[in-house]
Amino acid sequence: MAAFHVLLPAGAAARPEITRIRAENVAILIFDRTLSGSALNRLRCFAESTGRLRAFHREAGICELAEPEVPDPDFLARMRLWPGVLRVLSEGDPFPRGTSARASFEIEIPGGGGLRFGAGAFVWIAGPCAVEDAGVLERTARACASAGASMLRGGAFKPRTSPYAFQGLGRSGLDLLAAAAKAHGLALVTEVLDPRDVELVASKSSMLQIGSRSMQNFPLLREVGASGKPVLLKRGGAATLEEFLGAAEYLLEAGADRVALCERGVRSFEPSLRNLLDLAAVPALKARSSLPVVVDPSHGTGNRSFVPPMAKAAVAAGADAVMTEVHPDPSTARSDGSQALRCEDLPPLSRVLRRLAEFEGREWQEPFRDGGREGAPAERPFSAAALPESWILPEAERP
Ligand code: PEP
Ligand code: MN
Questions:
Q1: Predicted confidence band at 318 (pLDDT cuts at 50, 70, 90)?
Q2: How high is the pLDDT of residue 378?
Q3: Residue 369 is assigned to a structural domain of this protein
Q4: Which domain holds residue 38?
Q5: If you measure from the C-alpha of residue 46 to the centroid of ligand 1, how many angstroms do you get, rounded to a whole number?
Q6: What is the DSSP annotation of 246-266?
Q7: Average predicted confidence (pLDDT) for the chain
Q8: Ligand 1 atom, smallest distance to 323 CA
């Protein structure tokens, strides 16, 4: 096998100019350098037991493994799920950016402050399907914030099956969303449907949502990626995980460095559920990529009664965030009323999600004010300074 270039994760702070390294016949495993001695030993023993261990750079948080002659995705997937392993970089990986992208990042809140996504943080995103009017939005946002959600969701530009159905309030809906998020100290995620609206939606929100129907709208992915905003990418209703990861790769390739994947159900043969919520996608995506994974049980089931159990299951499956739709009076909602939680459903759901998240070792995220927050879980970048010199690309070859 020839030498190849590996894209390094963002955050290689010690040598920021190095974005790629050259490696030859190796898979590179990046692990948390602050793991306890016994956890490091277990990792090392596991690596040895594969018969492929070449070197264990404990200080650098890097382990070199011989690449198998024939690409072996199961082997790489097992390594990725090992506790403390942050990334596995391999020549055979078709999505090099998805496996080396940031596993955790901060997003900004309109009006100041931020929120952490991924790497042990747990975020609850809640809000209406669509912005309908200022009063309904205000009641919804207030209920979400007081129940402990840290991020408001809601559509101003709605992708609807029928062109005659309510399409959202557009620009004025965005203004209402931004004002509600600011008033309640929440981050804001909202969908952008049209590449021509990216700048506008980016200027009003914390995170851009790419809806299920747009997952493979490649010009939109490129435009959103180039905006540099955090992105919530929803899985297409009939997309394989390979196609989903390919779409994320478009965003990363175009310049996004804060991308979260959102499982929201896929079409199945069962008519009584809106979609089939694929919770196995959570560990499966985590085995293939370093990106945080969000689960949306509202679109995933289409039925408000099924949202709390599936939200709980999502936390247990390893989701970094859960997104739920809410409406003060779902019977009057202009879209997706049947799957909207009522405001009074939020506090009990919050209590149980919080306990489950803590049980799973996740830290429930409350928005923090400017200046960061003591104790916020942060990704620990590995030290590129400790990389073997032979891996460093000569300056002339650097992109
Ligand atoms: C939404 O979250 O507003 C939405 C339209 O969902 P999806 O794209 O998953 O259908
Ligand atoms: Mn909806």
A1: very high
A2: 43
A3: no
A4: 3-100+379-397
A5: 41
A6: HHHHHHHHHT---EEEEE--B
A7: 87
A8: 2
- Which numbered atom of ligand 1 lies nearest the CA of 235? 9
Q: Whose CA is nearest to atom 4 of ligand 1?
A: 211
- Ligand 2 center to 309 CA (angstroms): 18
Neighbours of 3 (CB within 10 A): 12
% residues pLDDT > 70 (the chain): 85
Q: Ligand 1 centroid to 137 CA: how many Å?
A: 18
Q: Which residues are near ligand 1 (CB < 6 Å)?
A: 129, 155, 159, 191, 211-213, 234, 264, 299
Is the same domain home to 183 and 114? yes
Prediction pTM value: 0.84
Task: Give the contacts of 215 (CB within 8 A, at least 6 positions apart).
Answer: 233, 234, 235, 236, 239, 243, 244, 247
Residues 79 and 153 occupy one common structural domain: no
Query: Is a pLDDT exceeding 60 seen at residue 4?
Result: no
Q: What tens digit of pLDDT does each residue of 190-210 get? A: 999 999 999 999 999 999 999
Q: What is the number of the ligand 1 atom nearest to the C-alpha of 212?
A: 8
More confident residue, 88 or 323: 323
Residue whose CA is at the smallest distance from ligand 1 atom 5: 211
Write out the two tokens for 369.
């004010």
**Which residues touch 271 (CB under 8 Å, ≥6 apart)?**
none
Kindly give the distance from the C-alpha atom of residue 130 to the centroid of ligand 2, in angstroms, as a whole number. Answer: 7
pLDDT of res. 54: 87
Asked whether residue 90 falls in the same domain as residue 138, the answer is: no
Q: How far is the CA of 165 from the centre of ligand 1 (A)?
A: 15
Domain identity same for 41 and 187: no
